[in-house]
Write a structure and sequence with these properties.
mainly alpha, 2 domains
Length: 181
């Protein structure tokens, strides 16, 4: 028998056969077993994103900041990016998503300042996230609250390799319409 993925239509049909009590039990099982579901309901029911935001922020920062005095950070971009992607799915506030994305770039820049030049994939990942952050900032008209942080990041990259400073300067000028200051 072929393995078929469950479709939304099939799921809706199944859910329509469940009683309200069975649906509640299903949701409680999901809540108990999956932290993403728990985070989703934490935000939906309280409207307070701070606790959940801090959880995802810690995941992102821990990939770029060394845990010990002489340790080199993990630099697992996929882990940090997945944290951002997961947070986007449950967040009710684009401001928080932008903040987390910018934290990714800031933490990467701080990593370079502490440990020196990294490699091209590292800078590509940070540059891509910077651009995506600017996309979201402009979409939601949030330049004012983030402008200082955006320009600070560009300023800190002046002496970094791989054309990173030039890339961030380019994205800033393209989106904002002026040179960073």
């Amino acid at each position: 028998m072929a393995n078929r993925n469950l479709t939304v239509t099939q799921l809706k049909k199944y859910l329509s056969t469940r009683t309200q009590a069975e649906l509640v039990d299903d949701i409680l099982a999901l809540y108990k077993n999956y932290s993403d579901v728990k985070d989703y309901y934490q935000i939906q029911l309280s409207g307070d994103t701070e606790q959940v935001f801090e959880k995802y922020k810690k995941i992102v920062v821990n990939e770029f900041i060394a845990t010990g005095r002489s340790d080199f950070p993990k630099l697992r971009y996929s882990v940090a990016r997945k944290a951002i992607s997961d947070f986007k799915k449950i967040s009710i506030n684009p401001y928080d998503v932008i903040d987390l994305m910018l934290i990714y770039v800031e933490a990467g820049v701080e990593c370079t300042l502490e440990f020196g030049d990294i490699d091209e994939p590292f800078y590509n990942s940070l540059g891509s996230m910077y651009k995506n952050t600017l996309d979201l900032i402009m979409k939601h008209d949030y330049l004012s609250p983030f402008d200082n942080r955006l320009t600070d990041v560009v300023h800190k990259t002046r002496r970094m390799g791989w054309g990173f400073h030039e890339e961030l300067s380019h994205w800033y000028k393209l989106y904002v319409g002026r040179e960073y200051s």
